[in-house]
Amino acid sequence: MTFSLPIETDRLTLRRYQESDYDDLLKLQSNDDVTRFLLYESKTPEQVRESLASRLADVPMDAEGQALTLAVILRETGQYVGEVTLFVYNAEHRTGEIGFVFHPEFHGRGYAAEASTELLRLGFDQLGMHRIIGRLDARNTGSANLLKRLGMRQEAHFVRNEFLKGEWTDEAVFAILVDEWQDRSATTESI
Questions:
Q1: How far is CA 167 from CA 19, 39, 64, in A?
Q2: What is the pLDDT of residues 123-180, one digit of tens each?
Q3: HEC assignment per residue over 28-54
Q4: Do the bridges between strand 167-177 and strand 153-164 make them parallel or antiparallel, or are there none, so unpaired?
Q5: How far apart are CA 43 and CA 191, in angstroms?
Q6: What is the DSSP string of 103-152?
Q7: Measured distance CA(113)–CA(100) in Å, rounded
Q8: How would you list the strands of the sheet with 167-177, edge to edge?
Q9: How do residues 112-134 score in pLDDT, each as one tens digit?
């Protein structure tokens, strides 16, 4: 599968990570407010180095478990604001999973929605995915609302199905199909 990077929007550049992004990634992944609803605790500097190394690796996005994580940069200032990830969830069934993590100082400005829209476009239009899901801690209402704004519908709410950070947590699952994406894209372009 092929895809084109970087991706430019009116306000953002979505690009591959670079070695020089270490300090920004450290600021993101070592922040307790950021990691509150994530699968991992705040990371140490060494763990962030390992995390950056995995983000620097080239991935063809043609097998389960592969992930493309892109740094999200403000075009006007060059400032790093967060990241978006597209996972190959099931290659045979052409299913992906979307994820996003943004620094709290950039919440509420529409950056996550703008970047995530482009990641859905990449998954459906360039990688030929049939379905893309979003999974999250059900307490994370901000991210759930974002998935809804992206046109994803909630398909499941699993009660106390994961033991994370010392407690049982609920998981919500959202999804969108390629034809729903195409219908949504045609509607928003005609407005």
A1: 35, 12, 28
A2: 999 999 999 999 999 999 999 999 999 999 999 999 999 999 999 999 999 999 999 9
A3: HHCCHHHHCCCCCCCCCHHHHHHHHHH
A4: antiparallel
A5: 43
A6: -GGGTTSSHHHHHHHHHHHIIIIIT--SEEEEEEETT-HHHHHHHHHTT-
A7: 9
A8: 7-8, 12-16, 67-74, 80-90, 95-102, 131-137, 167-177, 153-164
A9: 999 999 999 999 999 999 999 99
Q: Which two structure tokens, joined as six digits, stand for 79?
A: 């400032």
* 6 prior amide bond cis, ω within 30: yes
Joined tokens for residue 19: 């070695």
Q: The pTM is what?
A: 0.94
Residues 64-94: tens digit of each pLDDT? 999 999 999 999 999 999 999 999 999 999 9
Question: Any idea what DSSP says for residue 172?
Answer: E
The structure tokens listed for 20 are: 């020089």
